[in-house]
Amino acid sequence: MSTIGGPGGIGGPKGPKPPDDVGDVPEVAAEPGVEAAHGTSELDAIAADLSAGRLTPHEAVEKLVDQIASGTELGAADRAELRALMTDLVANDPHLGSLITRL
Questions:
Q1: What is the pLDDT of residue 51?
Q2: Which of the two residues, 59 and 8, has the higher pLDDT score?
Q3: What is the pLDDT of residue 32?
Q4: Where are the domains positioned within the chain?
Q5: Terminal CA-CA length for the chain
Q6: What are the percentages of helix, strand and coil residues in the chain, rounded to 5?
Q7: For site-directed labelling of 18, which of 29, 48, 65, 99 has its Cα 20 to 30 A away?
Q8: Distance of CA 70 to CAs 33, 64, 78, Å?
Q9: 11: which DSSP letter?
Q10: 22 DSSP assignment
Q11: What pLDDT band is residue 82 in, cutting at 50, 70 and 90?
């Protein structure tokens, strides 16, 4: 009798079998709103317009609020609150202010 044993040894388990065919995996549908998380082209465009002087910080906030609200069911009151919070953040956050001035 041999003292060799354990996984993969004599008489031990050989490990899992490889998958039969990975081509049969069905396509997975993305959750609503996931595209917005991955696609930053609109955000990049807003940042580029802001840095080029084509948008003021206020106009950039308006575009961001519209972009955020378009993928949700925000009512008018919630949009106004979001707009006020973002405007306050842009005006009073020193870190964000330094980022905007570097654009």
A1: 82
A2: 59
A3: 59
A4: 56-103
A5: 74
A6: 55, 0, 45
A7: 29
A8: 10, 10, 12
A9: T
A10: G
A11: confident
- Let me know how many helices (H) and strands (E) the chain has, helices first: 5, 0
The span from the CA of 9 to the CA of 16, in Å, is 15
The rounded distance, in Å, linking the Cα atoms of 68 and 62 is: 10
Residue 61 CB-density burial (10 A; 0-12 exposed, 13-18 middle, 19+ buried): buried
Distance in angstroms (rounded) separating the CA atoms of residues 3 and 102:
69
The rounded distance, in Å, linking the Cα atoms of 35 and 37 is 5
Q: According to the model, what pLDDT value does residue 98 have?
A: 75
Structure tokens at 60: 């950039």
d(CA 76, CA 79): 5
Per-residue pLDDT tens for 41-57? 888 888 888 888 898 87
